[in-house]
From TrEMBL, chains A, B:
Transmembrane segments: none annotated. The gene is ruvC. The active site is at D16, E77, D150. Its EC number is 3.1.21.10. This is Crossover junction endodeoxyribonuclease RuvC. The lineage of its organism: Bacteria, Bacillati, Actinomycetota, Actinomycetes, Micrococcales. It catalyses: Endonucleolytic cleavage at a junction such as a reciprocal single-stranded crossover between two homologous DNA duplexes (Holliday junction). Gene3D superfamilies: Ribonuclease H-like superfamily/Ribonuclease H. It comes from the Bacteria. Binds 2 Mg(2+) ion per subunit. Mg(2+) 2 binds at E77. PROSITE patterns: RUVC (PS01321). The RuvA-RuvB-RuvC complex processes Holliday junction (HJ) DNA during genetic recombination and DNA repair. Endonuclease that resolves HJ intermediates. Cleaves cruciform DNA by making single-stranded nicks across the HJ at symmetrical positions within the homologous arms, yielding a 5'-phosphate and a 3'-hydroxyl group; requires a central core of homology in the junction. The consensus cleavage sequence is 5'-(A/T)TT(C/G)-3'. Cleavage occurs on the 3'-side of the TT dinucleotide at the point of strand exchange. Its cofactor is Mg(2+).
Length: 191, 191
């Protein structure tokens, strides 16, 4: 069951990739940067099942959300090889599945690093998980912090993408002063 | 166009995962360990295309081979986080796509490390690429080394899987003395 997208808003599917828990969040973001929760949840796969079956379960869960909520864009948290080697390959495979589904449905996709997400949500790239969750709950006017953490992260990725890409309006106009400063610093760092 | 599987043989799809070039090899392996080439090739994706489109191209290429040649099992080279960080994430994502397709088609899948593949094919886990290619060509009675290298690697992975799993017969009976020695050494190393 989905709710119709508000006129002029951008519907973003955010994914925090993982094999055991893959966070899924869908938000509508308006031109004025206000956002509304459409869906939040987690797709789980059994750690004891063969990898091919686990990936098929994750794919089925993501496809169901795409079919139900018809997002316009998919945003996936970027995975780094140097982080937590034991689980990084499964996380990378799950992120590949999420991006594949976007490609197969003709949806544009983007990846954002954890620090891009934190900076977009809190204005601070080294914010802790609790700060991010608190801001996500505030932005979406939720009564409680989204649970589990993977679900909250997926919402943060979706919001990050909408805000960084400017949502339905131009990018720079949609940035807060903190985000604009961050973007400028990133541009300088790339030179 | 496929050739019918020989009675009592095992048809294995081997995949050397990659985004720019994904090696694909299909072999039939008989109970006496003899093997026959069914298909060899590479699925390429444009390095300039968005990642979601590249993964969809890779998935389309693998699905086409599964539909055409109806393998009974899928074997994928295992990716390690510590190898070549710049491309490892794309390789891991492509391996996830290969495993997903196996899962979605109800086919069992397995991963093998590069040294498992080298040991199975040449009897020596540190064999160089040329040695592996030469043995693959000899086993499959090919007039030339399979090209490109990714395609040869995919055939090696497929042969490795059939031989390690015992193909259509029991595993240990199907091992050469060198492979049995290697397997014993691996068992000892794991203790």
């Amino acid at each position: 069951m989905t709710s119709p997208r508000a006129r002029g808003s951008l519907r973003v599917l955010g994914i925090d990739p993982g094999l055991t828990r893959c966070g899924i969040g869908v938000v509508d973001v308006a031109a004025d940067r206000s956002a509304r929760l459409v869906h939040v949840g987690v797709v789980r796969s059994d750690a004891g099942a063969p990898i091919e079956e686990r990936l098929a379960v994750i794919a089925g869960g993501i496809r169901h959300i795409v079919d139900t909520h018809a997002p316009q864009v998919v945003a996936v948290e970027r995975v780094f090889a140097q982080h937590n080697r034991q689980t990084v390959m499964g996380t990378a495979q799950a992120s590949g599945i999420a991006l594949l589904i976007a490609g197969e449905r003709g949806l544009p996709a983007a990846t954002h690093t954890p620090s891009e997400v934190k900076a977009a949500i809190t204005g601070y790239g080294s914010a802790d998980k609790r700060q991010v969750q608190t801001m996500v709950a505030r932005v979406l006017r939720l009564d409680a912090l989204p649970q589990p953490a993977d679900a909250a992260d997926a919402l943060a990725i979706a919001l990050c993408h909408a805000w960084r890409s400017g949502g339905p309006v131009a990018a720079s106009a949609a940035l807060t002063p903190a985000q604009r400063a961050w973007q400028d610093a990133e541009r300088l760092a790339r030179r």
